[in-house]
Amino acid sequence: MLRWLLGAGREPPGLAEKSPFQSVGEEQTQNPYTELLVLRAHRDIVRFLVQLDDYRFASAGDDGTVIVWNAQTGEKLLELSGHTQKITAVSTFPCLASCAEQRPLLLTASADRTVVVWDSDTGRLVERLSYFQSTVKCLMVLPRLGVWLSGGDELCVWSRKLDLLCKAAQLSDAGITALAEIPKNCVVAAAGKELIIFRLVVPSEGSQEWGITEAKRLHGHQDNILSLVSVNDASFVSGSHIGELIVWSALDWTMQASEWNFWDPSPQQDTQQEIKLCQKPNDISIHHFTCDEENVFAAVGRGLYVYNLPTKRLTACHKAAHDSSVLHIAKLPNRQLLSCSEDGSVRIWELRERQQLTADPVPTGFFNMWGFGRVNKQASQPVKKQQEVTTSCSLELIGDLIGHSSSVEMFLYFEDHGLVTCSADHLIILWKNGERESELRSLKLFQKLEEDGDLSHTAL
Questions:
Q1: Are the beta carbons of 60 and 66 closer than 8 angstroms?
Q2: What is the spatial distance between Cα 375 and Cα 392, in angstroms, rounded to a whole number?
Q3: CB distance 195 to 230 below 8 Å
Q4: pLDDT at 372 over 60
Q5: Which of 115, 177, 195, 252 lies at a CB distance of 3.0 to 4.6 Å from 218, suitable for a disulfide?
Q6: Nearest to 105 by CA among 129, 80, 123
Q7: Which H/E stretch holds residue 284?
Q8: 335: left (phi over 0), alpha (psi -120 to 50) or beta
Q9: CB of 243 within 8 A of CB of 261?
Q10: Is 50 exceeded by the pLDDT of residue 395?
Q11: pLDDT tens across 166-192, in order?
């Protein structure tokens, strides 16, 4: 194993402003990832990582190849070559419990207008689907129904046997860029500024045919939707290029809450026009969501935000979490949050509860409106007594992983095998818990000595 360097003094070129919490110090006592393995196999930007099982993952990117890795050892297991252009979406189709003979499938879409289906155990190319008239931008598997969906200019529904069951054609000029499952056999698709609700018609006693119908179009956004996530059976959330976050009901498809501007305008800014002029759209673009049953965690510009759905209020934020845009976030066990950025860094955050008087600045919604004539209802709520104490949270930086030389596109978290990151520098890094790895090496040494019959106090 190689020991990794913190690199706290590194400053990526072209950054106008440094994060106020650039480093957590040389020791990083709360950061478990103190060892790394650098995995080299790709020849271009690595954009996608997908977990195959408890110890394997696959990587894919702009070189059109798919690599299957062992997350424990970093060994390259398979190299899959079937695309002629960059890969645009990746998904997995697990074995169905009702059929023991099935093998797990890996689905990859590409700018070459194909979707390739692989046997993820053997690497065998099962099928190359060349039906598409444009690039497939997203894939989604619905194991409960035994189907998978491809989104682009059309929304297509496919069986596990790769039969085209039904489709909804020519939806918009932008095409479908994201999909999320919601109750009652419905899916929501992001297409440009719109959200489109589709209902799947599942075979029944009356009809053995599959079908798909457009149920409703939601027009809450003023700019292109970049992120979409289903939170629970009651809600889903969408975010746009100019910082709009909208919470929708997953049952009746109505708007439950809308928040604008994931940043705090200074008191000196008196007009909405001044606010618009000082903020670039990329600084407030909502690049990625993750969630638990009650909270939405949003990557907005360079910042991280935690929005509580039951209370409809911001409970924690860090407006300068990275030096460049945050591209991917995930919630880890023990109230931790992980983020990666265009600045090449990966950071670990801890959500800590804190108490403060309501007289202190406490966000009531995300922030003020962006100027579309919509008023945040929470902003008009009366201020409570000064001495009433409310509970909020803070995001505290506890780990800073510096290993990539370019934008970190995404990551995977393995509870037993560490953290995997992929980057525009063509590399994959497998970050290891140093203490755990030391214990494993000691255990392996003990087992080897025991097998060799050389187990002695001196050897131990």
A1: yes
A2: 24
A3: no
A4: no
A5: 195
A6: 123
A7: helix 281-284
A8: left
A9: yes
A10: yes
A11: 999 766 677 999 999 999 999 999 999
Q: In Å, what is the CA distance from 215 to each residue of 157, 252, 257, 358, 400?
A: 16, 11, 21, 43, 45
3-state class of 121 per DSSP? coil
Residue 235's DSSP bridge partners are 249
CA 309 to the chain's CA centroid = 19
> What does the DSSP assignment read for 11-67?
--TT-SS--TT----S--TT--EEEEEEEE--SS-EEEEEE-SSSEEEEEETTSEEE
Residue 446: predicted pLDDT = 65
Residue type, 364: T
What are the E-state strand segments in 266-388? 286-291, 295-300, 303-308, 313-318, 326-332, 336-341, 345-357
CB-based burial label for 460 (10 Å; 0-12, 13-18, 19+): exposed
Domain ranges of the chain: 33-452
Residues 6+ apart with CB under 8 A from 409: 45, 46, 47, 48, 61, 327, 328, 340, 422, 423, 424
**Side-chain-side CA neighbours of residue 19 (13 Å):** 28
Q: List the beta bridge partners of residue 209.
A: none
The tens digit of pLDDT for each residue in 122-136 reads 999 999 999 998 999
Q: Return the pLDDT at 226.
A: 95
In this structure, the dihedral spanned by the alpha carbons of residues 231, 330, 41 and 59, taken in order and rounded to 10 degrees, is -10
Distance of alpha carbon 294 from the chain centroid: 17
Hey, what are 279's tokens?
């903020």
- Let me know if domain 33-452 sits in CATH 2.160.20.10: no
Longest Cα–Cα distance of the chain, Å, equals 80
The confidence band for 393, taking pLDDT boundaries of 50, 70 and 90, is: confident
| Per-residue model confidence (pLDDT) at position 52 | 95
Helix, strand, coil percentages, rounded to 5, for the chain: 5, 45, 45
**Residue tagged 């155990």 (tokens):** 121
